[in-house]
Structure formats: structure tokens, C-alpha cells
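Running this now, will post back.
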Amino acid sequence: MTKTIPFFFSINDAYAPFLSVAITAITTHATPTQHYTLTILYDDLSRENQMRLASLATTNVAIHFVPMSDRLSALQGEHMKLRGDTFTLTIYFRLFIAAMFPQYDQAIYLDADVVPTTDIAELFDYDLGTNLVGAVADTFAADNPQSIQYVEHHLQLPIDDYFNSGVMVMNLKQMRAERFNETFSHLLTSYHAEFIAPDQDYLNLLCRNRVLKLDRAWNVMPTTQARVADPKLLHYSLFGKPWHYSDAQNGEYFWELAPKSPYYAEIKAIQQGYTDDQRKQDRTTEQGLLGQLDKFSKLTNNDVQRMRTELE
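Update: finished.
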């Protein structure tokens, strides 16, 4: 019996061109006899972009679009508005998948800046048991002393356990049984914890000791660590975007598939138009991020401690 492989992305208009390459990679490697359901959670995605992305659907890869603002408002109410943060609810979409899609017991979540090199169904086949997610350790966090200190002091998690939330197998059935989204909503609205990466940091705290550690090949990020010989999924996180840098680490996988995208001309134009000043700003932003991590790692955040205590 053919099963359905559900997987989710969360984007806005800015990431539509790059998501098209991810979808192209998925359809390229999809098993013809398998069925896949791709759900795009969005806030501010134009009708034109929806139509262009929808054109990538195949006979066995269905593509659906779900506007999130109204759905989250109905689910959570006015209390879910953030307290003047620079972040919007968009970054939290993935935390509500279990509650919003009760028809699925397990699903895959992917950031838009990924390129799978194999059938995504292989990732879905992992048995999570009672773990809440399956994920890969975050190599950016492990590469930098500032982020190591942030994770181990501020979040009070072992750096080897801190996972990247851009590629996850999610145990939706277990999350619903444990009222995962209610717990998250309670923490978000009850405490004033400060995080560098709020969505990822909340997930790491909520899923602490409940993570199936996946092979690093399933989330290969730019890193100073040893290269993965046979990557299954490339993830161009943070400042390693091949559409900005011709020498981006593992960028060849992206450009192998980009010509098949309906956005190819635009993606090339983005790369060619990316200026030295913008690259300089990237380096400044990265140093600023490391500085923020260093600042946070020296703080004792009582709300983080109270959250951890409540979750234990």
C-alpha cells in the first residue's frame, strides 16, 4: 500500500525563488510509485508566486498553500501577538503543524534554502518512537566558541544536543498527545525569555532529551568541520547562500538544479547583482551575531531557568 509522505515549508515572497529549487530537487528524486504532499505555510505570498510554485507539482507530488495568519489567530487568539519583538509569528509556524494538521501522525519540516540529493521519503522512514523530533546537530553553533557558550550557559543544553530546526522529522501524533503547541503558547506568553534564534531555541528546550539524532548527511550546513562525503540534503543556512556567493560551500548542488526552476533567470540576476557592499554587510552581520551570542552567554536569564524547571 502506497503511503503519503507529508512535508512542510514556511515562506514569504522573498524565498519563493529558492523554494522552487528545493521543490525541483524533491520532484527530481521522488520515487514514481510514491505519493508526496507538500504544504507551503505562508504569510505574504503573492498569487503570482503561488501559481509559479504550484506549476512544479507532478503526478505524484501535490502542492498546497495554507495562509497562516488567520489560522493562527483562530487557533491561539489575540494573546499570541508578540511583545514588540522584531520577529513575527512566521518563525513559529512549524511549532503549530501538529495542532493544525491532525490527519498526519508524522511529517517532515524543511527550510526553503535546502536541496535534497535523494528521495525525501528516506527521511520520513525514520522510526521516532516516543521522540518528538528527529534532527541534526547545528554545526554553526558547534563551530563558534560564542555560540557554544550561549547554548551551554544561556540555554543550559549540551552543545552536542543542540539541533538545527531547519530539517526535522516531526512526531505529530506524540506532540498532540503531549499538548505540545499549548505548552509552547504558555511559555511564549508567560515568560520573557530572550533568545538569539527564538524558534530553534524554543524547540530545543521543548524537545530536550526527546530528539532522535539523525545522520549529519541529512542537514549539511556550511561549516568548518570535515565535509560530508555523501550528503543527502544540503542546507544553505545563515550566510552560505549560493545565490549570493559563487564560492558558497556545496553550492554546486544548488546550481545543478537551479536551471530547471521557473525562477532561474531571477536567481542568476540576484547572484550577479549581489554587491561587495552587501557581502561586507553579511560579514558585519555575522560578527554582530557572534557578539550578541557572546553577550547573551554572559547573562543569567531567570526566565529561561524557570522555563526549564517547568518543563522538567
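Confidence is low (pLDDT under 50) at residues 77-87. More later if anyone needs it.
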